[in-house]
Amino acid sequence: MFHVEKYSVNREEKYELLLKQLKALLDGEEDQIANLANASSLLNQFLDNVNWVGFYLLKNDQLVLGPFQGLPACVRIPLGKGVCGSAAAEMKTFLVEDVHQFPGHIACDAASHSEIVVPIIIDDKLIGVLDIDSPIKSRFDEVDQMYLEQYVDVLVNYL
């Protein structure tokens, strides 16, 4: 895998390269699970200071664990519960600096301290969320949010 850390580029340029890598990785493949698995693996390799990267898919009005990288996770999350369920219910990105301060936080991994959850929406319908956890408080910022939302925008073309 091509590691951009070896080159003198800023964080935005690294994210731009990541988006190109995602397109190349998924090009020609139509299987949703395979594409989500590779998308989570690519992010896990790209992002520093994360301990869980993966997807939850909407099934029967709840989020069900999909492809991921990290320790075993909660299998089902009700809509409106925790960070993932709240982001899904409101269909908007949640960037949480300290998950222990988030009302109703679901602690799948006690080592997680911050989290970003990006909804995956196709034709105005929620199909799931991208969930990324970090063992560091305030790990994610607006730059991460902007590019991770773009990452999901690229990904939906292959689901």
Automatic annotation (TrEMBL):
SUPFAM superfamilies noted in UniProt: GAF domain-like
Domain of life from the UniProt record: Bacteria
DNA damage keyword on record: no
Residues annotated as domain GAF: 50-152
Coiled coil: 12-39
Pfam families named in the record: GAF_2
Keyword vocabulary terms for this entry: Coiled coil
InterPro entries linked: FRMsr_CS (IPR000614), GAF (IPR003018), GAF-like_dom_sf (IPR029016), Phosphatase_reg/MetRdx (IPR051330)
Similarity field: Belongs to the free Met sulfoxide reductase family.
Protein name: GAF domain-containing protein
Source species: Metabacillus herbersteinensis
